[in-house]
Amino acid sequence: MEVGSWLWKVTYMIHVISNAAFFGISLVFTFGNDELMKEAVVKRYLKISSGLIFFTGATGILLLSILSMSGMDDLTNNAIGQSALAMILGYTIVLFVFSLALIYKGGEARIYKKLFGIMFFSYLFIYLIRVYLTT
Question: 22-80: per-residue pLDDT in tens?
Fold first, then answer.
């Protein structure tokens, strides 16, 4: 097996797993009850989520660099490139809102719910766009 295809498959698996895990965490905290939204629990999952967001970003950059090596310089001319641009937009939104959640020190459950809700629904919207573009 080629090194490029092996690297692509492993990177894509890590990307999808970390993306799905963060999507699941944001789903749980978007619709979580008050017991789940305690400060200590949220802070613990914010630490886990920061690792997942790091892996998503790092593998996304690697996947985009592999795409550009194979001749896909212009991401706007086909559906796969457009879906990659949509993922970049969604990742930027999630990264911004996630940094707000890290900075927030108030400890109110409703603020955390709103922040995780923004992240969840933006990822959901981006995934729907990706499905529309690639089918």
Answer: 999 999 988 988 788 888 888 888 899 999 999 999 998 888 887 777 666 677 788 87
Cα–Cα dist 119/93, whole Å: 8
Residue from 45, 32, 22 nearest 95 by CA: 22
**CA distance linking residue 123 with residue 65, whole number of Å:** 22
Q: CA 109, CA 32: separation in Å to the nearest integer?
A: 10
**79, 49, 75, 53: which is closest to 64 by C-alpha?**
75
Residue 31, helix vs strand vs coil: coil
Q: What is the pTM of this model?
A: 0.84
What are the CA-CA distances from residue 135 to residues 12, 69, 83 (Å)?
19, 24, 11
